[in-house]
Design a protein that fits this description.
The chain contains 13 helices and 5 strands. Strand 1 and strand 2 form a beta hairpin.
Length: about 325
């Protein structure tokens, strides 16, 4: 973000365009913050992030065999929260058989992780980070999979193709279930009713948060958007009138016409063929230069534009022709 006054550079339309672009940027930022607060979703971890001290040999082995060659202590460390990004990286390089053995090891030998393994939000996080299982880890995982199937999502589908809006709905449902809500919140009929209501009210709830939230950052962005809208409206009032095609006069040599276009126009008008440029323009002096004699396709001989060979032609001369 930057101060609003820094936008005021260039012509009125240029200012308006920059102002509109900045307003859209602020709006996206504000909606993103409001969405995180109102419809939270599992975190997306950078694969490979880890506090584990692993040798280069171990890192190479991960790319070949995944978790298979980890010691028992390394297997436990891998599942700790601070290593979650590395956990997803290792699991993506681990075959299904060794994945299943790994989770069996955690269940039997790491009771400190039992709460996470029995939380459906953990499996939703796995889905968000594109970790999919071809086996059932435990009863909680089975409930998670059945819930996805009930609303038409297969756990084998990539989490990348599940929208944040749907992730938000699943996060709500599994959070309620984990916090002691009646199991019927995950029943197929109830899910269908709740999903319909969730989708119907989603945009309105997001709008209300953006308009009424007391969050300092949302309030700041809301204020900046309001200022941008007022300034845009003020610029709209002094914006020059749009010209019609008939009102636009095009003079040969006008500085706003690219030199390439003028070169092509002269070649087409004089019916000349040349592999080199016919004219060059020097912005510093405002002068045009006719480079060389060129060939007329009709006469099969050289033809010279209405100037002598390699003559300097001032901009006013070109405007008269």
């Amino acid at each position: 973000m930057f101060p609003l006054m820094s936008i005021y550079q260039g012509d009125v339309r240029g200012r308006m365009e920059k102002l509109a672009q900045q307003r859209q940027k602020w709006q996206r930022e504000m909606e993103g913050i409001a969405r995180e607060q109102t419809f939270p979703i599992p975190k997306l971890f950078p694969h490979g992030q880890s506090d584990m001290a692993l040798s280069m040999k171990k890192l190479y082995q991960v790319g070949v065999s995944g978790v298979r060659d980890f010691t028992d202590e390394e297997k436990k460390d891998l599942f700790r929260g601070e290593n979650r990004g590395y956990f997803y990286f290792v699991m993506s390089h681990t075959g299904e058989f060794h994945q299943e053995q790994y989770f069996r090891f955690l269940t039997e030998n790491a009771p400190e992780f039992a709460q996470q393994l029995n939380d459906p939000l953990f499996y939703l996080e796995c889905l968000r980070n594109d970790l999919r299982f071809g086996f059932t880890v435990n009863d909680t995982h089975r409930i998670f999979s059945d819930t996805l199937n009930a609303i038409g999502i297969r756990e084998s589908d990539s989490g990348k193709f599940i929208t944040d809006k749907m992730m938000g709905f699943l996060y709500q449902k599994f959070s309620a279930y984990q916090n002691g809500a009646h199991p019927e919140v995950l029943e197929t009929a109830q899910l269908a009713i709740d999903l319909q209501e969730y989708l119907r009210s989603y945009d309105e709830r997001l709008k209300q948060v953006c308009e009424n939230s007391t969050d300092s950052l949302i309030a700041y962005l809301r204020n900046e958007i309001g200022r941008a809208e007022k300034n845009y409206a003020a610029l709209e009032k002094v914006k020059p009138k749009d010209l019609t095609a008939d009102e636009i006069k095009i003079n040969l040599g006008a500085t706003w016409i690219p030199a390439d276009d003028i070169d092509q126009f002269i070649a087409d008008t004089l019916e000349c063929r040349s592999l080199q440029r016919i004219v060059q323009y020097a912005p510093a002096t405002g002068e045009w230069r006719v480079e060389k004699k060129i060939m007329s396709p009709q006469q099969g001989k050289k033809c010279t534009p209405p100037t002598e060979r390699r003559t300097r032609v001032h901009l006013t001369f070109l405007r008269q022709h």
